[in-house]
Design a protein that fits this description.
The chain folds into two domains: 170 residues, Uridine Diphospho-n-acetylenolpyruvylglucosamine Reductase, domain 3 (2-Layer Sandwich); 108 residues, CO dehydrogenase flavoprotein, C-terminal domain (Enolase-like, domain 1, 2-Layer Sandwich), CATH 3.30.390. The chain is built from eleven helices and 14 strands. The radius of gyration is 19 Å and the shape is globular. It starts with 6 loop residues before the first strand and ends with a helix. The structure holds flavin-adenine dinucleotide (FAD).
């Protein structure tokens, strides 16, 4: 199906982009890689009247690592660039591990990491990774700059805390301690499909006990979501198969994913439990402690 007609803007600077957003933001959408926006427009799912193409805006295509190991990814960094970045592999290994799960190579060559976060698809991997890692999202507008914790960013199905006049400029992933391990696990019908259920998990194990745990699920509701009851169950205990099995039970009890043509609620709850045990085992193995 062809896209509906729209007014096209292609600013060449950040100030010009923000001025445009201030003027027409209520009727416009940012066009980044177009891998989510253009299909939804073609399907007439709330198509915007105006598009602001940021592909020519300089300064948004960088990956940087701070002296303390935080990794920042700019709004125009493509999935494929993140996937092959040595810095991301070293300083944000859970992000690197996630990238091959995102669609297919052609999509990763065009789509952007920040675009996926701004799109806030509850079935996408990266919003869950942001939640698991407590990432920080930076929004800019003519009113200034604000940093939004991932926990406050995803508000509902394709809904975020971004205001119509704001551009999501970058995402920052916190430093990854050497005592941490993570895993991205999902069940999908074919590799590259959106997951039936997925989990981004991170564990920090110090002196043989779990110091912190993040379990962020996707494809289980209107947003990615952490299961704090299961995380609390893990903290303070030694990693073990029994501990992970109990955490899996807590997860299956806590989540209530809606049924669809791909699976019932009971099946998805079961998958979430299976993925909990699998993800925690992989995360523990990545740290190199016995479980
Ligand atoms: C066949 C297919 C399979 C896919 N499979 C997966 C998958 O398995 N997992 C997955 O996670 N994704 C998948 N995707 C989506 C893909 O990851 C997209 O690249 C990503 O969701 C959006 O990135 P984009 O740069 O293409 O954003 P766009 O499509 O350009 O924009 C998406 C939305 O975000 C907004 N936006 C983008 N950038 C900004 C910004 N900087 N500030 C404010 N708003 C912004 C846009 O206005 C729009 O509303 C798939 C896509 C296709 C077509």
């Amino acid at each position: 199906m062809k896209n509906p007609a729209f007014i096209y803007h292609r600013p060449v600077g950040l100030d010009e982009t923000l001025s445009l957003l201030a003027d027409v933001g209520h009727d416009a959408k940012i066009l980044a890689g177009g891998q989510s926006l253009l299909p939804t427009m073609a399907l007439r799912l709330g198509p915007p009247e105006q598009l602001i193409d940021i592909s020519r805006v300089p300064g948004l295509d960088g990956i940087s690592v701070s002296a303390t190991g935080e990794v920042t990814v700019g709004a125009l960094v493509r999935h494929a660039t993140v996937e092959h970045s040595a810095d991301v592999g070293r300083y944000a290994p859970l992000v690197a591990e996630t990238m091959p799960y995102i669609g297919h190579r052609a999509i990763r060559n065009r789509g952007t990491l920040v675009g996926s976060i701004a799109h806030a698809d509850p079935a996408a991997e990266l919003p869950a990774v942001c939640l698991a890692l407590n990432a920080t999202l930076r929004a800019v507008s003519t009113d200034g700059t604000r940093d939004i914790p991932a926990a406050e960013f995803f508000e509902g199905y394709l809904q975020t805390a971004l205001k119509p006049n704001e551009l999501l400029q970058q995402v920052t992933f916190p430093a990854w301690p050497s005592t941490s391990g993570g895993a991205l696990v999902e069940v999908s019908r074919r590799h590259g499909d959106y997951a039936l259920v997925g989990l981004a998990c991170a564990l920090d194990v110090r002196d043989g006990v779990v110091a912190s745990a993040s379990l962020a699920f996707f494809s289980v509701g209107s947003t990615a979501q952490r299961v704090s009851e299961a995380e609390a169950h893990l903290v303070g205990s030694e990693p073990s198969a029994e501990l992970f099995a109990r955490a899996a039970e807590v997860v299956s009890e806590a989540l209530n994913p809606a049924p669809d043509v791909h699976g019932t609620t009971a099946y998805r709850k079961h998958l979430a439990g299976v993925l909990t045990e699998r993800g925690l085992s992989q995360a523990t193995a990545a740290i190199g402690v016995p479980a």
